[in-house]
Amino acid sequence: MIEIQNVRKSFASLEVLKGINLTVDKGEVVSIIGGSGSGKSTLLTCINGLEPINAGKITIDGTEVHAKSTDLNKLRRKVGIVFQQWNAFPHLTVLENVMLAPRKVLGMAKAKAEEIAVKQLSHVGLAEKLSVYPTRMSGGQQQRMAIARALAMSPEYMLFDEVTSALDPMLVGEVLDTLKMLAEEGMTMICVTHEMAFARDVSNRVAFFHQGVMAEIGTPDQLFGAPQNPETQKFLASVR
Ligand code: ADP
Ligand code: MG
Is residue 32 within 8 Å of 190, Cβ to Cβ? Predict the structure, then answer.
């Protein structure tokens, strides 16, 4: 499980996470919503150790992410992250792009890496695209390739940062369906999202971030149906 305890994070004099507490259990799906600049992306990058923290503690299955002794490369294999945009290697096919990390990071033999890449690409509905170059695919297909690439490392946790927000509206559904499938398979996920229907539908809990604070967290029914915090109410009114 992921345990976030009183985490504070600043960029220079700007404190962007002001004491975040959140525990995500195995198999749980937690969505994070909130306005731009509220600290959502920063939290994800702190969880997988891409960013240091100023105070507090994040542990993943008991391993303290920011402890000096922690092997961050090992930890990141366990925690996959997919961003709004991933720049695939344009000179490599879709299959080769997905094989790259298992080959380079895990030192996997070519045949084994290929087997895993084919499996994960099929899983996200791209079995027909193995030998295509990424630039020849739609944005939705490219995002599904990015998800397959993360899954090829056999992560136990997945972090998604607004993976649909750069997409044409008509391509959003196929990517959300892929996330939903992963959730149904029991993947532990934290999803930063603008898609309120998705958050409501797929999450066990939804957290609302406001100015570096987790202002409210609850079940989808609680958070969307009966928000308690005035800032949550304001935010939800603005996105409806
Ligand atoms: P969100 O994802 O909720 O939109 P972010 O976590 O990206 O918010 O950003 C929170 C705040 O931190 C913003 O004010 C942003 O400008 C600032 N910030 C994010 N990353 C950096 C950085 N690398 N250097 C300086 N400021 C940053
Ligand atoms: Mg963000």
Answer: yes
- Tell me if 89 CB under 6 Å of ligand 1: no
List the residue whose alpha carbon is closest to atom 22 of ligand 1: 11
CB 179 within 8 A of CB 173: no
Instruction: State ipTM.
Output: 0.98
Residue 158 CB contacts under 8 Å (≥ 6 apart), including other chains:
79, 80, 81, 82, 150, 151, 182, 187, 188, 189, 190
Q: Which atom of ligand 1 is nearest to the CA of 209?
A: 3
In angstroms, how far apart are the furthest CA atoms of the chain? 55
Q: Using CA positions, which residue lies closest to atom 12 of ligand 1? A: 16
pLDDT tens track for 139-184: 999 999 999 999 999 999 999 999 999 999 999 999 999 999 999 9
- Per-residue tokens: 7: 């985490």
Residue type, 194: H
pLDDT tens digits, one per residue of 17-41: 999 999 999 999 999 999 999 999 9
Break the chain down into helix, strand, coil percent, rounded to 5: 40, 25, 35
